[in-house]
Amino acid sequence: MTGPYADAVQLAPFADLDARTAYWLWQLRVDVFVVEQHCVYRELDGRDLETGTRHVWAQRDGAPVGYLRVLSEPDGARRIGRVCVAAPARGQGWAGAMMRRALHEVGGRRCVLDAQAHLAAWYARWGFAATGPEFLDDGIPHVPMERRDLGRPGLP
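The structure corresponding to this sequence follows.
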């Protein structure tokens, strides 16, 4: 993987996360999804522990500033989710660096996600297209999407 943040983006299964890193990653997810977005839901859903799950995070000065996870779905597809960047680090390219790493991990496999509707155009830059109507998840509009351009893992 290349790019300006390539060395700052990490990828690991749960078994390879040390306790401090896991704590910081979960704290970041809670800060963004539960606190900032006012969504009261079961953030720790058990999928983080699955052997096929890959945790991708960006770090600056030794602390996580962004996170996403890649899940293995029962049908063989990969699902990208929990994409978040800490408020002070937004707009600096961290989400793109993590997405590049995640798509490198996914390779040519089918990949799906549920994008917050206001970010659907951003995901389209990575080869994702809407596959169904907009729906509400915890009161936030989302769009189901699937990656159509499987031959180019390093989009933008």
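The chain has a mean pLDDT of 88.
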